[in-house]
Design a protein that fits this description.
The complex is a heterotetramer, with two copies of chain A (211 residues) and two copies of chain C (300 residues). Chain A is of the alpha/beta class and 211 residues long. In chain A, 36% of the residues lie in helices and 16% in strands. Classes of the chains: A alpha/beta (211), C alpha+beta (300). Chains C and D meet through helix 1 of C and helix 1 of D. Bound molecules: adenosine-5'-triphosphate (2 copies) and magnesium ion (MG) (2 copies).
Amino acid sequence: MRYDGAAEVLHDITLTLKSGSFYFLTGPVGAGKTSLLRLLSLSHPAYRGTIRVFGRDFALVGREEAARLRQRIGVVFQDFRLLEHLSAFDNVALPLRIAGADDERVAASVPEMLRWLGLDAVMEAPPRQLSMGERQLVCIARAVVTRPALLLADEPTSNVDPERAERLMHLFVQLHGLGTSVVLSTHSQDLPRRHPFPGLRLEAGRLVAAA
Amino acid sequence: MRYDGAAEVLHDITLTLKSGSFYFLTGPVGAGKTSLLRLLSLSHPAYRGTIRVFGRDFALVGREEAARLRQRIGVVFQDFRLLEHLSAFDNVALPLRIAGADDERVAASVPEMLRWLGLDAVMEAPPRQLSMGERQLVCIARAVVTRPALLLADEPTSNVDPERAERLMHLFVQLHGLGTSVVLSTHSQDLPRRHPFPGLRLEAGRLVAAA
Amino acid sequence: MRTLDLDLPLDASPLSRFMLWVTGTLVGLAVLAFALASLAQGRIVEEARRPRVVTVALPPAPPGEAEGLVGRVTAMLEREPGAAYAAPVSKAEIDGLVEPLLAGAGAGDNAGAGAGAADRFPLPRLIDVAFNPGTAPDLGALERRVQRLVPGSTIGDAGPLGSDDGRLVRLLRALGLATGSVFVLLALVAVVMVTRMSLRQHHETVDLLRLMGARDGYVARQFEHHALLGAFKGGLIGFAAAMLVVVGVVHGPAMLGDPPVVPVRLRPLDWVLLSMVPVVTALLVTLTARLAAVLTLRRT
Amino acid sequence: MRTLDLDLPLDASPLSRFMLWVTGTLVGLAVLAFALASLAQGRIVEEARRPRVVTVALPPAPPGEAEGLVGRVTAMLEREPGAAYAAPVSKAEIDGLVEPLLAGAGAGDNAGAGAGAADRFPLPRLIDVAFNPGTAPDLGALERRVQRLVPGSTIGDAGPLGSDDGRLVRLLRALGLATGSVFVLLALVAVVMVTRMSLRQHHETVDLLRLMGARDGYVARQFEHHALLGAFKGGLIGFAAAMLVVVGVVHGPAMLGDPPVVPVRLRPLDWVLLSMVPVVTALLVTLTARLAAVLTLRRT
Ligand SMILES: Nc1ncnc2c1ncn2[C@@H]1O[C@H](COP(=O)(O)OP(=O)(O)OP(=O)(O)O)[C@@H](O)[C@H]1O
Ligand SMILES: Nc1ncnc2c1ncn2[C@@H]1O[C@H](COP(=O)(O)OP(=O)(O)OP(=O)(O)O)[C@@H](O)[C@H]1O
Ligand SMILES: [Mg+2]
Ligand SMILES: [Mg+2]
């Protein structure tokens, strides 16, 4: 995989993630964790090799089907990417609306999700009025509100306190129990220690340890 | 302190930081850590009470002197706030240039700083081409390159691997040794454990523990 | 609610304001141009309804003979097919026509006042002939027939509108229609440009929406809604401004009792057609924005 | 390097492009307007260099007396201070003037050809008097003196440019100067607006710079540099476009051997002055941008 006009950042990665499994993705700064998750989320077209997601080769699917596949993937971005002009509520509602959910379903799922994360008070606030931790929680809510079949979480606990981090891990593990495949990148040494899931380790763009 | 038209987020905080000291600032998501640092960085005018920095009451200083005071404060923002259209180099050079440093001094200090943080390879890249950890390191470089008298670091290790985090702590402790006052907010439980500096703990806008 | 609450922050961008001004200005100019065309068309229609008048000039003749000749020619002209009436121009009228031309000599003439120019100089005699609207008299043949009665006669024809005037009005109508269309076209070009710039400006948000599985149509719809709103607002402002100008120029002087600047008014049908300009433009703008968005998105 | 590498991403914003087009268009229009003023000024200067000719009209008189009167008046006029020459207008010339007015009667007159109108009708006699350029004859006093010799005489004055023509040219000069200034002013207003919008759009970056201890002047200087660049580029484009139009309209036909559309050329000095328009505008724009930025920043 390479970014526009830059050197290759991921090399020779062969990787099969089992459906319904949970992986930790670790590695130093700049190792390529985010880049790998980007490939898995079908958002980066410049790669060599083959990417199969849900059993389909991404290079061969049409625009219409790519959109449908993407609707089954939830992404927690390391930089959140909330829409600044929408409230926390509307940000979380976005993937539901894109998937064609009606207002009723939105009104049922979104507040429940936000409440569970302790964001009742800031539901109508735009991202710029939230603390960083609150923004991260909104981003996580947006990724899981559709109960995706694949959850890609990039450093989802980097800006939250230890209690909240534990609560989030609980959420991810629950989703995993309901059949969602999870790939979670983290710099934390605690999380893999406390949750004995298989780990993938990247260093300078190469997979050095896979379970 | 309050944000535009929102409820008060910090209440009854009385706090004297000793010149040349090092404090950890902790507390759950949304407690007001960033807000408190914002007050200390003289960037938020809407507060009740008195803020004295370097012995001067902020409410009484003129525009010109406020600018001068601010040049002596280094801030690591939780959301980095790098200028997107400038390279990592130019981002780090910015506070030096604002303070009127000549090109020679810039050319001497900036690359040294970036090299020490392991960013040699990405010096000319704009922030959008950096990994999140790399961006955070650039933001830290920008805050310390002027050797400020007061360093306000908001979650400076949230997106870096454990080795880099240790290296950064080493840097901060060194600066502290050279006379810089440091206030460092963090969600980590490790850092305060390993570096026995006094802690300030915020909960829901109130100072619940001060050392 | 979905339609107002756009996922893309289109309202906030200065491009949006730019769009508003551009559609406003261009719709205003288009309305002005079409108003000009309407006025010209109105004048043409009106003139076609008027009888056509030509003037027959008989050469000067001794006072005794002249009256008889004029009478005979007049009688002949009245029998022409399509002629509504034929009437000699009175001496007083001819004096009125010629007097100013000899004004330079008038100062020294005060002594011999009272005698008109027509009496003192051997001037031609004139006969006005009016043809019914819709008939197209063959003036060449008519002239030959009059010359058989009185050699040296000529026929002066001002044309349906006065020939020069008529060409001008028809030119104005064509010009109005053409420039009006050009302004509408320019508005559409501006919309295409603004849409593409918007897409580029908001490409991060667009990418995010697609990453969540949004189809091109979902994104394009936002531009469509936004363009409709902007074009509608801008169009109304432009239309109102243009109408103020038209009313001011065309109907204003009459209200103040002054002579009109242009000799025609807008008819009720014109007002209806002109008010269609912003509506049609808004619809075209909407369609164009959606098309531009879809086509641009498909390429990336 | 500091001046090109702005801390604020001003170049990337669509406002910047907008700015370029606005200054370009407005400078172009301003140059056109000033070119019009220059042309008018050129014509006025040229006319002032020509001798001023007035025409004295004596009332009709019996053929015998007329020649003597004309001779006496001509002699008197030649002695007038500032008069270059005085010359009676010949009968043939008067015929030429009057003939077309009586054209309607001409057709029947063929039989009695050879005799001019001046012979047949008691027409006034005319005398042209030319005054040296720069003198301002008192035509009222002159008329009274001529009337003492020949009662009923009048003086026809076409004015330095022909009175109507002269007023038109002076009007065009005023109009050109006024609209040119308005366009420059509009450009400045646009700059103020764009600068304020930019400041609002980039307020996060501005806040960050201030947080690092940047003074207002440091931030304002960026807008200044940026405006200078934009105005300079836009101004050059507008100037070039306007000059193409001017050359096309004023000098083009002459190159093709056609008769000129306007009877004057731009003088070298005009070219120099016109090329100052974009330069001066760019400087004004720069100053305005800086002022607008400083004043807006001071308020926050
Ligand atoms: N848009 C881009 N264009 C060019 N290079 C990029 C781009 N994004 C990332 N890179 C480079 O690719 C490498 C891997 O980046 P990536 O974001 O995948 O790292 P990461 O493992 O997620 O790091 P971190 O732990 O800091 O998030 C880095 O060296 C980075 O500089
Ligand atoms: N610009 C703003 N306008 C209104 N309210 C704000 C704004 N910024 C923060 N807040 C609110 O103020 C409270 C404190 O925010 P602050 O960013 O100081 O928290 P924090 O302790 O830094 O949290 P975190 O650990 O998530 O960074 C939060 O409830 C947040 O919603
Ligand atoms: Mg990453
Ligand atoms: Mg914070």
